[in-house]
Backbone:
């Protein structure tokens, strides 16, 4: 055989290997539990990223129910990290939700969400990074991720997705997320902007970003839990004053200045046992212990192993709490008929878990404030919103880091309304950043106040005042 022929064969073999996981996207017209065809456009698919596309990223793309050709695209990343995008779709801002059922053996029904954000924008929900939802890795090396590697991967994912969807390249593009994405999303935005500036194609038509209940700075977020608890009447004036006196505003155990401070912080933590930190007005339910982004990975893994059991949760009475819907989703998402309808590759992930805390992940960004500083200087729009009864990421801390950017106020603190009722309070700064509280909401806000959050998003994305 001639040398040139051998070379051609070898080249074709290598090319086939590299393209063995080429971009695959398919329409979803029916879903188990929903009566009839879906009344909106849904596409799912995989895009390979990282070395030799060892990471296969799964996505759900919902076209806008308004005007998909011209409406903005919102790339939405669920927090955790390593929580599935389906959590945001079913419980926060997507066009469908699950009805409650009395038994975990009953296939739940899907119904339309009246206050979906897809009524205003195209939304690209992504199971990200690998290990989240249906996204997976094909090698042991790719099973390890972290904040910086994730930034490279999501940048690659988005550009490949747009190459595969050229009709959306010119649409205004926003990045959005909540909870832990407060650490990573500003980093992603800065890196995407940097690659735009060096001419990486296709250029991303970046316009701004949205963050809900965003973890931003580990020290600030933690230190403002004590003032919030005091303001809500969860600790006494005297105890608050003694904490201030002995700890000088530093309420993390690792920063305890002395033994007395350490003891008072432990007493504070013990005193809040039984308070639902995701939403202080609701009854305590330990399923939410998985939502606390600050839990060390080893402890969080132990919690996940016990709490992720449906039968364990049923035995401890979790079905009587607000978050029982998480269990229903786990049952529904692991049905073979559901995965087939979503075009999930068989044998790639094992069991679907809403938040996969057992995956190897490095928490590398301790503060995203420097990234906000850079994006503010570049003049990008941003919406930062907080449920005002969230103790995981207190809105007081969010206000504090926003103030630290040192931009003047152009629209001072005022109430904003939905249907004539106060939905929260808002303030806008000269760097085009809008901050808003959602009255009576927790972590994350759209789960508790879907109508108010949908109205907030619609006004902001259209450039209107809240």
Residues:
């Amino acid at each position: 055989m001639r040398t040139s022929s051998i070379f051609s064969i070898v080249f074709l073999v290598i090319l086939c290997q590299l393209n063995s996981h080429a971009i695959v996207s398919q329409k979803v017209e029916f879903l188990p539990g929903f009566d009839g065809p879906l009344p909106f456009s849904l596409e799912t698919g995989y895009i390979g990223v990282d070395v030799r596309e060892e990471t296969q990223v799964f996505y759900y793309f919902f076209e806008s129910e308004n005007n998909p050709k011209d409406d903005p695209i919102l790339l939405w990343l669920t927090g955790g990290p390593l929580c599935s995008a389906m959590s945001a779709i079913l419980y926060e801002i997507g066009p469908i939700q699950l009805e409650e059922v009395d038994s975990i053996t009953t296939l739940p029904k899907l119904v339309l969400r009246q206050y979906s954000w897809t009524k205003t924008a195209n939304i690209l929900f992504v199971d990200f990074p690998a290990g989240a939802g249906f996204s997976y890795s094909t090698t042991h090396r790719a099973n390890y991720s972290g904040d910086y590697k994730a930034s490279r991967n999501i940048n690659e994912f988005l550009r490949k997705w747009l190459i595969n969807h050229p009709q959306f390249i010119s649409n205004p593009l926003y990045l959005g997320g909540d909870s832990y994405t407060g650490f990573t999303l500003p980093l992603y935005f800065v890196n995407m902007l940097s690659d735009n500036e060096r001419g990486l194609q296709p250029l991303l038509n970046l316009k701004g970003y949205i963050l809900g209940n965003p973890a931003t700075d580990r020290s600030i977020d933690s230190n403002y839990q004590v003032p919030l608890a005091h303001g809500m009447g969860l600790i006494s004036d005297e105890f608050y004053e003694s904490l201030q006196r002995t700890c000088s505003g530093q309420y993390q155990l690792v920063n305890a200045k002395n033994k007395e401070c350490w003891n008072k912080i432990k007493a504070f933590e013990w005193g809040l046992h039984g308070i639902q930190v995701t939403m202080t007005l609701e009854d305590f339910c330990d399923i939410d212990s998985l939502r606390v982004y600050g839990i060390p990975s080893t402890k969080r893994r132990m919690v996940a192993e016990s709490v992720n059991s449906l039968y364990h949760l049923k035995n401890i009475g979790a079905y009587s709490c607000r978050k029982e819907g998480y269990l229903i989703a786990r049952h529904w998402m692991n049905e073979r008929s559901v995965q087939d309808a979503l075009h999930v590759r068989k044998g790639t992930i094992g069991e679907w878990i809403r938040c996969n805390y057992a995956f190897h992940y490095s928490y590398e960004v301790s503060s995203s404030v420097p990234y906000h500083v850079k994006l503010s200087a570049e003049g990008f729009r941003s919406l930062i919103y907080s449920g005002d009864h969230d103790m995981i990421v207190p809105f007081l801390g969010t206000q504090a880091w926003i103030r630290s950017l040192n931009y003047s106020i152009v629209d001072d603190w005022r109430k904003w309304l939905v249907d004539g009722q106060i939905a929260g309070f808002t303030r806008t700064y000269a760097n085009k950043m809008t901050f808003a509280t959602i009255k009576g909401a927790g972590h994350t806000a759209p789960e508790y106040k879907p109508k108010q959050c949908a109205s907030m998003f619609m006004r902001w994305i259209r450039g209107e005042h809240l």
Residues 220-336 form one domain. The chain has 16 helices and 16 strands. Residues 287 and 358 are 16 Å apart (CA to CA). The first strand starts at residue 24 and ends at 28.
